[in-house]
Specification:
Chain lengths: ~260, ~375
């Protein structure tokens, strides 16, 4: 009994710690006071200002574009990498595995910096393209990790059964393996999407002028005071991210 | 006609030789069983036939054609996997249709055939279900139909009944036999279960350590085992080793253990002074309180050490001069009317001179396969 209460207390404490700031931001987004702090009256003015702000929208569209395209490309590359890791067990695969999964542990600031140095060295113009490439590099790791986990649970006799029944290797992949692994690929893609859309550090290094994504734009807004529009933006952001994460969980848990 | 031929097949994984220069031929239309303990190489041999494994050396020949280097999808062989390997994302109907679809048959032809096979396995009512909604026996039937619909030259079955419970296993055996008669396709059946193999097979090949120990009909391998492994792995038996004292027509006189001389049918052309190993099945031995008076039998006197009553038969372990002999008495009379044989009784055990069989090869390690009395099992466990 006692332990149960203690665990509950800890859980509550963690929840409060995690979500109280979000709740405060959400409340403030409806607060008509310009700089928060104390409650004045209920308003939707920050939301209407948010939807009217062209710069925010262009940053948001940049974010969406990069998140979507980098998610799609990393879904393809990450899945291919996972298939290779699962199928071939040579010594080179150990190196492949290490290289593939290192972005999961290397600090963002290091990735950002080294990518910046690289882009400058090979003289690629900083902009949306470099942000896209940077996001693909770290997203691949996450997609590969999720897909590999699913492949390891995959019953290889299903693939053999497809071959046995007369399917060539391409058809066996197309008709049996890919459909069964697809929820994993999709979950990896959604994960890549959410990671891309709220990445700040790496994007900060590799985005040139005029290629601001939403997190970068929010940061620059905060540097010039603390407009209440950020509150309403954050609330929408949190909701969207939650929906995506729930979706990816659903795909992972299903089957 | 030799239909599926394995010719000098060898296969190793690292230093572990799984199949050792094995040659065997399966006849067209028969049910051929590969029977052996786990790790004997039987599944590897099946996978070599299917094309999932490549032999290190040797050839596989199907209907006169060398298929050793063909990929699985180019072989006219289909497999029923041990875990069924039904495609979980497809319905029963689509699972069965899979082979015909990838072979590019017309829609009408596929539909007709699928309906026919759904009917054959009595699964028409469940055609739209996903495999996860089926029972073990139903999955099994779908797996068989999915393979058979492609009209393979040989159907490969890898322990197809291992995942089913006993009653269902017996039913499925009858079903399999019936389906075999229906479609007339050659079956290559891999199992570790001797009763399964004996009941369904036309030919059994007993495998051990990557080699065929003996090939023959069920009756042949059971009644006339060539090696101690076959004798001990299929059914239960008693082993004796002895020396030939003299030869008397068709029979030879042996001195075995500390028993009185034993006479046995001489089908191996042994000479006096030669060492021989005998196998005698427990159910061939009779047991009685009174000394039997028949002619042409061997009789030993011993003491009852252990009795296990099993309804249709009773198992006894009789100690003869300290040597333990297993005896099975099959009951074809009402047991309550008979003077019971009980623990520590002095009894006579006896068997016909023709019931004992001389082995060609004997290995002491095979004795571990024999059923032991409980107290010995207990002793082993406490060690």
């Amino acid at each position: 009994m006692k332990r149960g209460k203690f665990a509950l207390l800890i859980t509550l404490f963690v929840m409060v710690f995690f979500y109280l700031p979000v709740v405060i931001v959400a409340i403030n987004s409806f607060n008509s006071a310009r700089f928060g702090g104390e409650w004045k009256s209920f308003t939707l003015v920050w939301y209407s200002k948010l939807f009217a702000d062209k710069n925010i929208w262009s940053a948001f569209m940049n974010s969406l574009l990069i998140a979507f395209s980098s998610a799609v490309l990393s879904m393809i590359l990450g899945s291919v990498a996972a298939f290779a890791l699962e199928k071939y067990k040579s010594r080179f695969q150990t190196i492949h595995r290490m290289l593939l999964f290192s972005p999961l542990v290397v600090p963002d600031i290091l990735i950002g910096m080294s990518l910046l140095i690289f882009f400058v060295a090979v003289q690629i113009q900083l902009g949306l393209m470099t942000v896209f490439l940077a996001h693909v590099t770290f997203s691949i790791s996450y997609v590969a990790m999720v897909v590999l986990a699913r492949l390891q649970d995959f019953d290889s006799s299903l693939y053999e059964a497809a071959l046995d029944l007369g399917a060539g290797r391409f058809n066996a992949m197309r008709l049996v393996v890919i459909p069964l692994v697809f929820p994993g690929i999709l979950a990896g893609g959604i994960m890549a999407f959410t990671l891309s859309i709220d990445d700040f550090v790496i994007t900060f290094f590799v985005s040139g002028a005029g290629a601001a994504t939403l997190p970068g734009y929010i940061y620059s807004m905060m540097k010039h005071g603390f407009p209440a529009v950020i509150n309403s933006l954050s609330v929408l952001f949190v909701i969207a991210t939650f929906i995506l994460v729930l979706m990816s969980r659903k795909f992972l848990v299903k089957q | 006609m030799d239909f599926l031929i394995f010719e000098n097949i060898s296969k190793s994984y690292g230093s572990n030789k799984v199949i050792d220069n094995l040659s065997i031929a399966v006849q067209k239309g028969e049910i051929f069983s590969l029977l052996g303990p786990s790790g004997c190489g039987k599944t590897t041999l099946l996978r070599i036939a299917a094309g999932f494994e490549e032999p290190d050396s040797g050839r596989v020949i199907l209907d006169g054609q060398d298929i050793t280097n063909l990929p699985p999808n180019k072989r006219k062989l289909n497999t029923v996997f041990q875990n069924y390997a039904l495609f979980p994302h497809l319905t029963v109907r689509d699972n069965i249709a899979f082979g015909l679809k990838v072979s590019g048959f017309s829609k009408e032809k596929i539909n007709d055939e699928v309906e026919r096979y759904l009917d054959l396995i009595q699964m028409t009512d469940h055609a739209s279900k996903k495999p996860s909604k089926l029972s073990g026996g139903q999955k099994q039937r779908v797996a068989i139909a999915r393979a058979l619909i492609n009209k393979p030259d040989v159907l490969l079955l890898d322990e197809p009944l291992a995942a089913l419970d006993l009653k269902l296993r017996q039913r499925m055996l009858v079903d399999l036999d019936w389906m075999h008669d229906e479609v007339g396709i050659t079956f290559l059946y891999v199992t570790h279960d001797q009763s399964e193999a004996m009941s369904i097979s036309d030919t059994i090949a007993v495998m051990n350590k990557g080699r065929i120990e003996q090939k023959g009909t069920s009756v042949e391998v059971y009644e006339a085992p060539r090696t101690s492994f076959v004798a001990a792995f299929i059914g239960d038996t008693n082993f004796f080793d002895g020396e030939v004292k003299s030869i008397d027509g068709d029979y030879c006189l042996l001195s075995v253990e500390s028993f009185p001389d034993i006479r046995v049918y001489n089908d191996k052309a042994v000479k006096p002074g030669g060492k021989v190993y005998l196998s005698i099945r427990p159910e061939k031995i009779g047991i009685s309180h009174n000394k039997p008076s028949e002619e042409k039998i061997n009789v030993l006197k011993g003491k009852v050490e252990e009795i296990i009553y099993l309804g249709s038969h009773t198992k006894y372990w009789i100690s003869v001069n300290g040597f333990r002999i297993s005896v099975i008495a099959v009951h074809n009379t009402f047991m309550l009317d008979i003077k019971e044989i009980s623990f520590n009784d002095e009894v006579y055990i006896y068997w016909s001179l023709d019931s004992c069989y001389m082995l060609e090869q004997y290995k002491e390690e095979d004795e571990a396969l024999l059923t032991l009395p409980d107290d010995e099992i207990l002793d082993q466990e406490t060690v």
